[in-house]
Design a protein that fits this description.
286 residues, eight-stranded parallel sheet, 10 helices, 42% helix, binds 6-hydroxymethylpterin-diphosphate
Length: 286
């Protein structure tokens, strides 16, 4: 029996509706790899969030610090100052918007949850800050646990695995166990293989090809492949914001393998592709 609370077709029960969930990316950073500096100030950021909601995003993932390869960390205070006004502004325009906070810092997560965020997206899978597990446990909110080898500054310098799929799967199983031991409810755990985080092209492809190994851990799975450089390596599209078509391929394939959440920049393209994929897969299951 499934350990996670899901609707009949696999969507998590903390969201209204059912089916695959598009998570719209809102980077309020000057230096993100594909959209850094696009939204200077809370008004522009909230406007983009509302546009993504209108295009079909069910969650907006707000991040104040870039984790692109080679990026430098900022302070918790700077991060809070970047994200909280944006959250407040989005919620003043869309009171029922579901917002996740992309942070590994307990203080930032606390501030964002107080401002109305409803999920925590932790790219360190609760390893980055010893206080994070209890923040999530006390808030009783969903948390995304992502795999990363190394840290953003150096993670793309020759990442090594013996068996990337087995190692990422085992890591995520252990982090889920850690979360549950810390009092986080199993139905609040979402797993993410961390595409591009300490992985070369072959590692990313192996993880997407064998995503069912992670889906079989029986927690909902999020995939974040949007506009990432491995798509550029395959297609030759150098400009990150032009990697929409390649991103859509990853979304549809990951959905077919059982992923539930798709963290993307280009909401409409991915939403429409998922709607078609859903119709095809549901028809063929009858
Ligand atoms: N990827 C990025 C950031 N956060 N969170 C999860 N759970 N999964 C991901 O794959 C993921 C993530 C990196 O992408 P982006 O936010 O577009 O860029 P940057 O880190 O440069 O802001």
């Amino acid at each position: 029996m499934s350990r996670t609370a899901r609707n009949i077709d696999g969507a998590p029960t903390f969201l209204p509706g059912s089916g695959p969930v598009v998570v719209g990316i809102l980077n309020v950073t000057p230096d993100s790899f594909s959209d850094g500096g696009d939204f200077p100030g809370p008004e522009a950021a909230a406007e983009h969030a509302v546009a993504m909601l209108d295009e079909g995003a069910k969650i907006i993932d707000v991040g104040g610090e870039s984790t692109r390869p080679g990026s430098d960390p900022l302070t918790q205070e700077e991060e809070i100052q970047r994200v909280v006004p944006v959250l407040e502004r989005i919620l003043s325009e869309r009171r029922d918007a579901v917002i996740s906070i992309d942070t590994y810092r307990a203080g930032t997560a606390t501030a964002a949850l107080e401002a109305g965020a409803r999920l925590v997206n932790d790219v360190t899978a609760l390893r980055g800050d010893p206080g994070m597990a209890s923040v999530v446990e006390e808030a009783s909110c969903p948390v995304i646990l992502m795999h990363m080898q190394g840290e953003p500054k150096t993670m793309q310098k020759d990442p090594q695995y013996e068996d990337v799929v087995r190692e990422v799967r085992d890591f995520l199983a252990q982090r889920a166990e850690y979360a549950v031991a810390a009092g986080i409810r199993p139905e609040n755990v979402i797993l993410d293989p961390g595409i591009g985080f300490g992985k070369n092209l072959e590692h990313n492809l192996a993880l997407l090809r064998n995503l069912d190994a992670i889906v079989n851990l029986d927690f909902p799975v999020l995939v974040g492949a949007s506009r990432k450089s491995f798509i550029g390596s395959i297609t030759g599209v150098q400009e990150a914001r032009e990697r929409i078509f390649g991103t859509v391929a990853t979304t549809v394939l990951a959905f077919e393998k059982g992923a539930t959440f798709f963290r993307v920049h280009d909401v409409r393209a991915n939403r429409e592709a998922l709607t078609v994929a859903e119709a095809v897969l549901h028809t063929s299951r009858q």
